[in-house]
Specification:
The protein is an all-alpha fold and 301 residues long. Helix content is 63%, strand content 0%.
């Protein structure tokens, strides 16, 4: 059942995508997206899949042999890399590398650096949120994937509009509604709608598409979308905590941080937290745990 129904907002986003073209999804992403949903993915099958793409295989091995991972022995094959890293981390390396090439690669890769780093940080945080609140019923792999795709629309708008670099900056309006209004006024669409259509064209589930579409505003009342609401809530919380961590690392405090115009207390009292059934004290405990952990590395190259 397709829960993502076209309306004026999506039609405008579709016109933009018709103009610039939707990147074709790499086969490895489509297959890995399916495999991450399986309870016991097969190592040999995944290694064989990645080996079919020589360029991707070479890039993954190069990344794994970089100082980022600090391995004592050089990895010489995808099978070896999978054994060394384990399934979970290996999938992250492959998916991040492949998506980066599609949405933030090429000769202008430097333009997308800030966008990409935020995208990866939010996706890692989505995984942590899903693991911390298993009662939401969303797998950590699914949460990770929706986080990794959530700003793909912004990457395509950056490709289309020369001034989108400036728009995608620390000076975004603090009020999410104003953000989307301002974006629509300037570009006649917004990155959430563009991202939703890209995700749909790549075969992501309707739940993931809906979460991506509404990640800067309240989720609308709609029947049959309980998983989409939970994904949306996880993504919103991940955005909040990612921003908070960056804020504190930059010298800020709990009391002077606001996410899209909302304090932590405001956010917890909003409808989003009703979807996860979490309390303020639980969120604070989660944030404290996150602050004590080293940030996962951002995979470049």
């Amino acid at each position: 059942m397709n829960l993502v129904q076209d309306d004026d907002e999506l039609l405008a986003a579709g016109a933009l995508l018709t103009d610039i073209g939707v990147p074709s999804p790499p086969k490895v992403i489509l297959e890995l997206s399916r495999m991450v949903m399986e309870p016991n993915p097969d190592y040999r099958t995944i290694a064989g899949l990645v080996n079919q793409d020589a360029a991707l295989s070479a890039k993954v091995i190069k990344i794994i042999n970089s100082p980022l991972f600090g391995l004592r022995k050089k990895v010489k094959s995808i099978n070896h890399a999978l054994t060394m890293l384990g399934m979970d981390y290996f999938k992250k390396v492959v998916i991040q590398s492949s998506l980066r090439e599609v949405f933030a690669g090429g000769k202008d890769a430097h333009r997308y650096e800030k966008l990409w780093e935020n995208n990866v940080a939010v996706s890692n945080m989505c995984k942590k949120v899903a693991e911390y609140w298993p009662k939401a019923g969303i797998s950590s792999d699914l949460a990770y994937m929706v986080g990794l795709f959530h700003d793909c629309g912004a990457a395509l708008m950056m490709r289309k509009f020369a001034d989108y670099d400036q728009f995608y900056s620390d000076d975004w309006p603090p009020n999410a509604a104003h953000l989307l209004d301002r974006e629509f006024e300037r570009y006649q669409t917004n990155h959430c709608a563009v991202g939703c259509l890209v995700a749909r064209s790549w075969g992501l589930s309707s739940d993931m598409c809906l979460a991506i579409r509404h990640h800067h505003r309240e989720f609308p009342e709609q029947e049959g979308v309980s998983d989409a609401r939970c994904l949306w809530a996880i993504l919103r919380l991940a955005q909040f905590v990612t921003g908070y961590v960056n804020h504190v690392h930059d010298g800020g405090t709990h009391r002077d941080y606001a996410f899209e115009g909302m304090s932590l207390e405001d956010l917890v009292e909003s409808s989003l937290f009703q979807k996860l059934s979490v309390s303020l004290s639980e969120v604070l405990s989660f944030i404290n745990e996150v602050m004590e952990q080293p940030a996962p590395p951002v995979i470049r190259g």
